[in-house]
Amino acid sequence: MKTLRKTNDQIDLRLTPSEIVMLCNALNEVINGIEVAEFELRLGASLSEAQALLTELRAVLPTSEVGEQTK
Questions:
Q1: What single-letter DSSP state applies at residue 11?
Q2: Whether pLDDT at 31 is above 70
Q3: How far apart are the first and last CA of the chain?
Q4: Strand, helix or coil at 27?
Q5: Which of 45, 7, 10 is CA-nearest to residue 27?
Q6: Please, which residues bridge with residue 12 across strands?
Q7: Which residues are paired to 6 by β-bridges?
Q8: Is the pLDDT of residue 70 over 70?
Q9: SS3 helix, strand, coil % of the chain, rounded to 5?
Q10: What are the pLDDT digits (tens) for 3-12?
Q11: Which regions of the chain does DSSP assign to beta strands (E)?
Q12: What is the average pLDDT value for the chain, to the nearest integer?
């Protein structure tokens, strides 16, 4: 991961497909694999926001990488 630009309200990052897969897998586990008490408080986002982020991350992956992650 490389930070390209950082401002008060936005951070631009460059991520490899493998890094995105890792983020997707972690989010997927938190959303579907384990029960997180006080989900919103602990993650700083609602379940629907986390699901939307996971969907967006999956959408940017090359097709060949999507099969490597948990769906």
A1: E
A2: yes
A3: 23
A4: helix
A5: 45
A6: 5
A7: 11
A8: no
A9: 55, 15, 30
A10: 999 999 999 9
A11: 2-6, 11-14
A12: 89
35-62: string of b/e by CB count within 10 Å (b at 16+)? eeeeeeeeeeeeeeebeeebeebbeebe
What's the token pair of residue 35? Answer: 């029960």
Look up residue 5 and give its amino acid.
R
Location of structure tokens 């309200």: 9
- What tokens does 62 get? 């090359």
Contact 5, 11 (CB under 8 A): yes
- Which tokens belong to 42? 């602990």
Share of the chain above pLDDT 70, in %: 89
Rounded CA gap, 31 and 47, in Å?
7
pLDDT in the model for residue 20: 96
Q: Is the pLDDT of residue 33 over 90?
A: no
CA distance 71 to 31: 11
